[in-house]
Amino acid sequence: MSDVRLSKTGDLPALRSLFGRVFEEDEAGLDLFFSHCYREENALVAEVDGALCGMFYILPAQLLCAGKTLDVAYLYALAVEEHMRGRGIAGEIMHELDRLLPARGYAAALLKPAEESLYGYYRRFGFDHAFYVKRFPFSAGGPGKVVPIRLDKLPRPRESYFSCRPLFLWNQGMLRFAEDFGRHGGGGTWLIETPRGGGYAHGRIREGKLLVTELGCEAGSEPALLGALASRLGLPGGTALLPPDAPFGEREPTALLKWFIPARETKDGYFSLAFD
């Protein structure tokens, strides 16, 4: 059985080491995460015989749902040392979160499993599907003006680009992290204007193709914006993860949610800019 507690002064070197080894993150990526996101009071750690062997991070966020803005916790980077796995340490961390998060006033917890096999694991702790995207392959082509921008410098509030609810929201500090982390991974954010309409896209380049993880625009203009962006970047095309109410693409689940208050309707929520 492990001792699960909040992080404290002195844990940082062990946390950086565990994060880097489990998620294969380089030093620059570690610097970005721990400078933007790490706070002692928002990191749970597990110890066995005085040695740190597990971790999970609480990233404060909000959920725009049924006309209200709710405080929620995005749970990120659950990790256990390889030689300590299979002993229930991750489950002990999850149970401590069940106590801690409602006590802090969070309405819900959200997470995005890194792989499909983990969806069933998190359901054991009361999480269920609540957010969806439509996966839409696109090709380069078409006219348009494309200008790089930052997520925290959009010309109007990010939530105004989307009609679907609930909508997952980051504060300005986390938007800056999402932008910097995306750029570190070869991505960015772009304002796009085409004859069919305008909007913005955030994404990254993978194996010579563009993966757009968020697209804010008027319904029906998605192919024009994506085609113009790919052309501007000199790429053949790519894939976009569109809101679930978009008129294009195949619907698929993304994130899981667990309520600590009476449940709200979440069948068509949009959860982009997630760090899975």
Describe the overall structure.
The protein is 25% helix and 37% strand. It is α+β, with helices and mostly antiparallel strands and 276 residues long. The strands form two sheets. Strands 1, 2, 3, 4, 5, 6, 9 and 15 form an eight-stranded mixed sheet that branches. A hairpin with a 2-residue loop joins strand 3 (51-65) and strand 4 (68-80). Helix 2 packs antiparallel against helix 5. The protein is globular. The two termini are 27 Å apart. The mean pLDDT is 93.
Which short descriptors sum up this protein?
alpha+beta; 6 helices; single chain; seven-stranded mixed beta sheet; about 280 residues; eight-stranded mixed beta sheet
Give the topology, please.
Layout: E1 3-6, H1 12-23, H2 27-36, E2 43-48, E3 51-65, E4 68-80, H3 89-103, E5 108-111, H4 117-123, E6 128-129, E7 132-139, E8 145-149, E9 167-169, H5 172-184, E10 187-194, E11 197-206, E12 209-217, H6 222-233, E13 237-242, E14 250-253, E15 256-259
Parallel strand pairs: 4-5, 12-13
Antiparallel strand pairs: 1-2, 2-3, 3-4, 3-9, 5-15, 6-15, 7-13, 7-14, 8-10, 10-11, 11-12
Helix pairs in contact: 2-5
Q: Give the averaged pLDDT, no decimals.
A: 93
Distance linking N and C termini: 27 Å
Q: What general form does the structure show? A: globular
Largest sheet: 8 strands, mixed
Radius of gyration: 19 Å
Give me the count of strands.
15
Helix content: 25-40%
Tell me the strand percentage band.
Answer: 35-45%
